[in-house]
Design a protein that fits this description.
single chain, 162 residues, alpha+beta, Lipocalin, 8 strands, 43% strand, elongated
């Protein structure tokens, strides 16, 4: 009898604790699905990540073949889901970045990006379709006065890391 009373008391005690635990849970977590983002923030979140595997490359006549074959671009965003850091690898001839390199939207349509502290290319147009982006940029020559390869370049990259 005493065991049954103790068991009943323990069961009631556990039920009360469980009720308080459930009441303490809420749905107000900070998942990205529940945050109200504007269109520019949504576009920044979509562009965020590492883009590589160049394909469908177009370049001016006389340009060294395979000059964009190792291009890897990284677009980061801030805690406010706005454009942040920018990093380019594998094509320093076009995208020489620094630790302070950043990116920002140029237009409301989010079709153009300015590259801050990146030389010599300072702006690119971007067309994103799912996990691929098409970049087009104008190369006007490096600081060494080289004339070869001046003109418009295009390359399609695939998102390899979010």
């Amino acid at each position: 009898m005493k065991n049954a009373r103790n068991m009943k008391r323990n069961l009631i005690f556990l039920s009360i604790i469980f009720t308080f635990l459930l009441a303490g849970c809420n749905k107000d977590d900070d998942s990205i699905d529940e945050i109200n983002l504007n269109e520019q923030q949504k576009a920044a979140v979509s562009l965020r990540g590492v883009w590589a595997i160049p394909e469908d490359v177009s370049m001016p006549v006389g340009t060294t073949a395979n000059v964009l074959d190792n291009l890897v671009l990284t677009f980061k965003i801030s805690d406010q889901y706005t454009p942040g850091e920018f990093k380019a690898e594998g094509a320093d001839y076009f995208f020489a970045t620094t630790p302070s390199s950043k990116w920002q939207w140029v237009d409301e349509g989010r079709n153009y990006v300015n590259l801050l502290d990146t030389q010599p290319t300072a702006s690119i147009s971007i067309l994103q379709e799912g996990a691929k982006i098409r970049l087009v940029f104008l190369y006007t020559g490096g600081s060494g006065g080289k004339m070869a390869g001046i003109g418009e370049y295009g390359v399609t990259l695939t998102k390899v890391q979010p």
